[in-house]
Amino acid sequence: MNHKKRLHKPRPVSILISLIAIVCLTLMHGCYKPPLEQPYRINELNNLILQANKAFEKGQSERAESLYHEALKKSRIIQDDNATVIVLISLSRLYTSTGQIEEAKKLIDSATELSNRAFLPEDTLEELNFEKARIGFLLNENVEQLLRKLSFSNFTNIRIKSLNLIARLKIKQHEYEEAEKLLNQALIINQKTNRIEEANSLRLLGHVYLDKDNALAGQYFLKALEIDKELAIPEKIALDMETLGIFYKNMGEKQKAKEYFIRALEIWKGLGKKEFEIKAVKEIESL
């Protein structure tokens, strides 16, 4: 006797439930939109970096450092490699301004390591290379070849900064004519597009002329101070005041020198820079 297997027909209710489930899943998949968290975080990150930069310019080092670290944390959370490298470069500049050169070098080494495995825009890579050269210069490393290469960068800002830094190197090596040529080249390229670097070029020209034309050297120092006052960057203004104080001290004009050192001291006190305060006080007492 043949026993045929009985096939159970699916019940209409089961079919209906399955269809409803499929339709629901399809609708959910088609209509679902992820929360707009990422763009918000990117804007938040950019704002943090902007705030940190402003704090740094105002000489508020502790606030700038805190904001940079917060930005660094956020950039790593959202895996924004470009922002991470930019923040590391900014922190490096902050640390060198407070004399923490070895700490700055560690940050740049970290940024370099990241740049080797991430795709970064050309301008960020050039900024990173310049910062490597700047740290190397401060550590007395041979960075001239890298700086010469960067002086032909596609980015005007990098070219100007590189020329200024090569000039600093040449002044250090007492090659004043070469330094003067580089600084004039930087000023021609600049055309007032980067006022901070324009002031740097003029200040360095003042050092170039110290031994051959004191009057012209003084004019360059005063022009640099004028620009830094326009930009309202306290640390730069204080450093200009100190430069002029040393200039007039060496010229034998003690009263003028004292006035500039006193004004520099006022700024350092306002910024809470104890190390620079002590230095200014010593200069005043020596007059």
From TrEMBL:
Q: What does the UniProt keyword field contain? A: Repeat, TPR repeat
The keyword Ion transport is annotated on this UniProt entry: no
SUPFAM superfamilies membership: TPR-like
- Specify the superkingdom: Bacteria
Q: Please name one Pfam family that this protein belongs to.
A: TPR_12
Q: Which PANTHER family match?
A: NEPHROCYSTIN-3, TETRATRICOPEPTIDE REPEAT PROTEIN (AFU_ORTHOLOGUE AFUA_6G03870)
Tell me the protein's name.
Tetratricopeptide repeat domain protein
